[in-house]
Design a protein that fits this description.
The protein has about 160 residues and is mainly β. It has two helices and eight strands; from the N terminus they run βαβββββββα. The termini are far apart.
Amino acid sequence: MNTGTVSPAPPLVSAISEDSRGIPSLNFRDFFKLPIGPRGLEPTEKLKALAGRRIGIVGFMVRQSIPTSDFFVLSPLPVSLGDEDETLADDLPASVIFVHVQPSRETPLFHFPGVLRVSGILNLGAYEESDGHVSSVRLHLDAESSRALAARQSAPAIE
């Protein structure tokens, strides 16, 4: 059973509730309630309802100056990070998702330019990542999808 995929997405993506395979779609704008109130960022009911389920999401892989081997960050817009000393104060938007690969790779995940569509199991809650960032939204790709990503990573893209 395939529980996750990685594929290029078309440049323009419509806001749909399910993709062609019937996987619920999550948009970055569905992460937190708007407007932001006195309690700060609060997850939406949709985000909480999808926790533990297979979902699909479209975004941009964040370019990290020090690539990790066990996850990458997906953002609603292209972002580059200089991670040497910025784990607590960086340029990441609030609504990002940390995409974990299984099993953890021995080699780093190189930046993939352009829009990506990923799917896997959504997980919520504070978690300290291997690079020191604390994530609140994560997507766990299955082993098959992680292997597909690894195959695409065999030769880093020239950007």
